[in-house]
Amino acid sequence: MITPPMTSTLSSYPSLRPIDDTTPPVFRALFTLACFPVGLSISSMYPAPSTGSQGCQRRWWIELLLPGTKEGSITYSSASDEVVEAYSAQWAEDTALFLQARVQEIADGGLMILIFPARPDETPHSQVSTNVSLIVLEACLIDMAKKGIVSQEKVDLFNVPIYYMSPQELGGAVERNGCFSIEKMGILHYPTSSHFQSLTSPRDRAQVIASHLRAVMEGLIKAHFGDDILDQLFDSFSRMLEEDGLSALGSAKTLHCCAVLKRKTMI
Q1: Which of 129, 131, 139, 187 lies 20 to 30 angstroms, CA to CA, from 119?
Q2: Residue 72: pLDDT band with limits 50, 70, 90
């Protein structure tokens, strides 16, 4: 679910407002490449994990996790401050490389549109919607380890490679790069599905959320634990979400942002 109010960082940019039905079509029809002039790049910066092994073997998922800081945690948002700082530092490094690559591709005056989910400025990582769901999933895995269904060692080694930046962090990365200006940054409002809105039973809502999370996470979990635990894990997730997690998920915050960057003219 999307939190509609603008954050302080968004309002600090000129002429910023939520992107909605009154927004010019060129900013809404982001998928229609033909409507854009030459020199415009569209990039989707989404923090979802890859189901392959390459993403899980990256330095920031393994080597930067300090000994004793991640035991039992499958997501950085429930780990120690050192882990969160390591993820943040690696995100900054990767984003710097991403922006520098775009510098080589985009002509002076060209535009780049970034579409990305984010956490509101100053919002703790543990209060991001996806991270709330992952913390519930983590509790299910720990419970399964206690029952001997999976090994505790496997749970300790499992990691979901996701990091949610804030608009403020993106602004800082753009400023450090120095080759782009942020022309516009706003919130994309995606309507909640009518089917989900029609569900009044906590059990039905929990089952829908569980099915969505499974669609994203199944490959990653299967690669690490095998496929024998999938049904039991997500059944347990659905029950735990119904009992304890829906209220926390309802108060969680995630933004879906669109930033328009312009390549500076370099003399």
Answers
A1: 139
A2: low
